[in-house]
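User: Teach me something about this protein's shape.
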Amino acid sequence: MKKSQWHNFKTLFLREAALIAKDHSLLLTLLIAPVLYAFFYGSIYINKEEEEIPMAIVDMDHSGLSKQLAEQINNLQAIELISAPGLDEAQKMMYKGQTQGYLFIENGLEKKVLSLQSANIVLAANAARFLPSSDLLSGVTQVSLTVGAGVRLKFYEMQGLNEATAMHEVMPLNLDNRPLFNERVSYGAFLLPGILALILQQTLLIGLTGSMASEREKNTINQLSDTAGNYSVALWGKGSFYFLLFMCYAFFFLTVNFTVLKLPVRGSAFDITVIMALFLLTIIPMGIWIGSLFKSQLLCVQIMAFSTYPVFLVTGYSWPFESLPLPLQWFSSLLPTTPFLKVYTSLVQQGGGLMNNVEAILHLLLLWLFYSALSLLSLKWINKRLSATTT
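Assistant: First, the predicted structure itself:
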């Protein structure tokens, strides 16, 4: 970069800082919203796992086995058992929202199990809420299999089999289930890293597009281009302020927020820095291009704020990318968030490296070139229109 271009670059950096300082809405969005949202949304999922989900139990057997079953289920961290006198009462408790389901233990359960006959326990879970029903099902299933296996083990030992042979008869095939990375399979540990990345992206987009829309609303884009000397310097001179600011936010999130929320960062700090920088470099021209399409700052900010949740849903983070309708897959592929979250998740949560995500990185690089070209063409077109209007 020539000395004059470097001077113009610095001038645009300081110009952007001055513009933001004068605009209270941008100041609030860029300096307060990222930290406020990160701690607010993070605090919602800080416990990461549900605890003491209320579930009614109807014990018609009143045997030692049924009491043992109820005791072990109640000992689970996720479940709190509430005794119900009958099936009708248990159903009413669930319908009123007092419990998230009920467990029905039939009469004669212990006798059937001890005689190796098939016995049933019925779990009714409120599937209108996904997490409680899933936790109830997994907890009750785990305890039921454990208790049933213990009873059968004692039965075979009473038949004269030694412990090893009896265990083989009870469980001829053992499943060694080891969840990786999110070891406790908690919803918060899965969701929080993606939410923090989305907050980083959306606050940047809202602030940058709002600034660009304000430039067009006030007809100052020609001043931006004149100060820069060329459109490339105008693009990155204006964007450099946002790049520096949001790299600081990214570092803050990955250190302070991840520590407060007890989220591990398993990947290399260098690799994470590289992908964060590439992500921001892609978002900046995208934001400048989108902002240049609007002549009203208010309308631009409203639309960008509205886009937050739809963007999160189509990136493949909360729902598998392959399961999206084909048009949404095409739209998702145009968002830098989609390849970024693939690499980001691999680095932060799985301990992968950049070389494990070459395809997604190339995707992000292509989007960087694509949006850089769009933003430069947009700046050139608007500047020509303004020049033609003034002459």
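Now, about its shape. The first helix runs from residue 3 to 22. The CA atoms of residues 149 and 158 lie 14 Å apart. If you'd like, I can walk through any region in more detail.
User: That's plenty for now, thanks!
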